């Protein structure tokens, strides 16, 4: 696993990203009543569609649509409910915008229906471990796949937040899942990885992981980071969830310097500004240093 960052390609059906050239913004669209940050705000289909369109206008490269909350303590939802929440929103966004769409799901049937409706990416927080059909669905469509690290299920994962070395253990897990996905027949360029900030990890674990994010380059795949408004930011700043925007942007800027290439965020416009400014500064630094 020695892909250089500059050569990384992320193939998502008919879309090809080169995130080393410009980090990508993935806008979060939770079509659920109980997500930790915006639960219920976009539960209505029409409101969700309008918010998705707004994020496209603000510069989102990808819209990540989810119909089941995976926050700590969340209860699972039925297949029918998740389909009812997700598929109509994806269909509507595909009709109205030429945008890359991701489906945030652990259920292969939801992923299959979403891909048939026009989605390009499966964002699977179980890293293909929850549903044995998921890899076959991804392979059939040539979909992009995000493999995330977590421990346990949503209802109990914080009970499993015990590590000897969280950075090493998360890295080794993600390397293993990339190798496993390839053995299942998924093309390596379709895969991306996510350290799973907040998923079976304490605030201290999250900080340690982000501070050493560059270690995950050993996986040889684009690094997705989802830290927007999360609890560890609140623990550091003392801010409630709706006031964690500045803390989020500070963490995102740091992560970009450490090799993050896909930022999964609630606030698309401000995150886009961070990416544009930091990208310009880093390019200038590289230009001067290469003289």
Helix/strand-derived category reads alpha/beta
Shape: globular
| Count of DSSP strands | 10
> What level of helicity do the residues show?
40-55%
CATH architecture: Alpha-Beta Barrel
Q: Could you state the CATH homologous superfamily? A: Dihydropteroate synthase-like
Mean pLDDT: 92
**CATH fold type:** TIM Barrel
Largest sheet: 8 strands, parallel
Low-confidence stretches: none
Count of separate DSSP helical elements: 9
Strand order of the largest sheet: 8-7-6-5-4-3-10-9
End-to-end separation: 30 Å
Count of discrete domains? 1
Percent strand = 5-15%
What's the level 1 CATH class?
Alpha Beta
Describe the structure in your own words.
By secondary structure, the protein is α/β, with parallel strands linked by helices. The chain has one domain: Alpha-Beta Barrel (TIM Barrel), CATH 3.20.20. The chain contains nine helices and ten strands.
């Amino acid at each position: 696993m020695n892909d250089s960052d500059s050569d990384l390609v992320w193939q998502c059906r008919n879309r090809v990203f080169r995130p080393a050239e410009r980090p990508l913004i993935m806008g979060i669209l939770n079509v659920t009543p109980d997500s930790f940050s915006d639960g219920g705000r976009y539960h209505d289909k029409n409101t969700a569609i309008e918010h998705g369109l707004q994020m496209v206008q603000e510069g989102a490269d990808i819209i990540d649509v989810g119909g089941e909350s995976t926050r700590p303590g969340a209860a699972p939802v039925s297949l029918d409910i998740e389909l009812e929440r997700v598929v109509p929103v994806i269909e509507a966004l595909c009709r109205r915008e030429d945008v890359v769409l991701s489906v945030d799901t652990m259920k292969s049937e939801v992923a299959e229906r979403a891909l048939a409706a026009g989605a390009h990416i499966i964002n699977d927080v179980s890293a293909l471990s929850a549903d044995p059909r998921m890899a076959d669905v991804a392979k059939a469509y040539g979909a992009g796949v995000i493999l995330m690290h977590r421990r346990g299920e949503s209802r109990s994962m914080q009970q499993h937040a015990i590590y000897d070395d969280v950075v090493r253990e998360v890295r080794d897990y993600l390397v293993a899942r990339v190798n496993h996905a390839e053995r299942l027949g998924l093309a390596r360029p379709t895969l991306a990885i996510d350290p799973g900030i907040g998923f079976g990890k304490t605030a201290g674990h999250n900080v340690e992981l982000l501070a050493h994010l560059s270690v995950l380059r050993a996986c040889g795949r684009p690094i997705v980071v989802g830290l927007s408004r999360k609890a560890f930011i609140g623990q550091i700043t003392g801010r409630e969830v709706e006031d964690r925007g500045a803390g989020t942007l500070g963490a995102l800027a740091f992560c970009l310097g450490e090799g993050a290439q896909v930022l999964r965020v609630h606030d698309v416009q401000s995150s886009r500004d961070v990416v544009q400014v930091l990208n310009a500064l880093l390019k200038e630094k590289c230009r001067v240093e290469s003289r």
